[in-house]
């Protein structure tokens, strides 16, 4: 199979660059932005050898997995651009649900899957990490902001020796390919990008994200590199910050950090 855009993305004039293999789709996208590309444009491959996730952690996609990045050049501030990651999360969840239904129609024995969005930028399947996302931005020559949203999905294999549980679609009984998932994702991205509308529609994105969120109302521990904040995951606010309700009745906004839920949160708190 070859990569192709979904009908909605095609109708919107979205561009596509597909690679047999590349170091990083995010790097490909940002390099193109520096030469004047304005997007929207997708950069995709089934084999990524030098990808990076949040906080520059390695994210390698062995052949058969999906590494994808979308470039948008926007007239927004960096703080508004950051909320685009939540639109991406909803788009990914919708695409995964769509291809899971299609796979179940082809093979009725396929297991049902519960996809959840983990703040700030993961998608979980059965509590295991299935998708990682990474948003990068830099000033474009025309004074706008070049924003790249990288999305890595474990389709045929999950990485080994990870410090958290991981999942892949094929092991879950979802027989879709990376190409199948990308076609669906390009269309759900088009939908959610339109709702987001340069941040003006973030209230609706926030509502949809919270409907799909993992860990709402559960114990949570967030390590921001300086301290660990523990409490109950209450909500996300109008800027996308996680709100942690602490035992002393404070409501603390979290802008970034490593998140641990449930028993893992309690264990980490006990060790501090």
UniProtKB/TrEMBL annotation:
Gene3D superfamilies: 2.30.30.100, Bira Bifunctional Protein, Domain 2. Keywords: Biotin, Ligase. It catalyses: biotin + L-lysyl-[protein] + ATP = N(6)-biotinyl-L-lysyl-[protein] + AMP + diphosphate + H(+). PROSITE patterns: BPL_LPL_CATALYTIC (PS51733). It comes from the Bacteria. InterPro entries: aa-tRNA-synth_II/BPL/LPL, Biotin_CoA_COase_ligase, BPL_C, BPL_LPL_catalytic. GO terms for cellular component: cytoplasm. Residues 1-197 form the BPL/LPL catalytic domain. GO terms for molecular function: biotin--[biotin carboxyl-carrier protein] ligase activity. Its EC number is 6.3.4.15. This is biotin--[biotin carboxyl-carrier protein] ligase.
């Amino acid at each position: 199979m070859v990569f192709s855009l979904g009908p909605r993305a095609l109708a919107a004039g979205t561009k596509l660059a597909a690679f047999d293999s590349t170091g990083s789709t995010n790097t490909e996208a940002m390099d193109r932005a520096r030469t004047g590309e304005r997007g929207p444009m997708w950069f995709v491959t089934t084999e990524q050898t030098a990808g990076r996730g949040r906080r520059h952690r390695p994210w390698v996609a062995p052949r058969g997995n999906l590494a994808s990045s979308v470039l948008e050049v926007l007239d927004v501030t960096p703080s508004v651009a950051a909320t685009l990651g939540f639109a991406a999360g909803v788009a990914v969840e919708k695409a995964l649900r769509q291809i899971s239904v299609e796979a179940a129609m082809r093979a009725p024995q396929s297991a049902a899957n519960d996809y959840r969005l983990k703040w700030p930028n993961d998608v979980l399947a059965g509590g295991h990490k299935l998708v990682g996302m990474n948003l990068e931005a830099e000033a474009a020559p025309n004074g706008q902001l070049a924003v790249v949203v990288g999305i890595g999905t474990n389709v045929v294999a999950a990485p080994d020796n990870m410090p958290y549980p991981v999942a892949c679609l094929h092991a879950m009984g979802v027989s879709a390919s990376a190409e199948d998932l990308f076609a669906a994702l390009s269309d759900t991205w088009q939908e959610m990008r339109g709702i987001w509308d340069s941040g003006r529609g973030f209230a609706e994105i926030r509502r949809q994200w919270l409907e799909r969120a993992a860990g709402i109302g559960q114990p949570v521990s967030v390590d921001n590199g300086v301290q660990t904040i523990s409490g109950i995951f209450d909500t996300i606010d109008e800027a996308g910050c996680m709100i942690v309700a602490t035992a002393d009745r404070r409501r603390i906004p979290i802008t970034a950090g490593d998140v641990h839920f449930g028993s893992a949160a309690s264990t980490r708190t006990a060790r501090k």
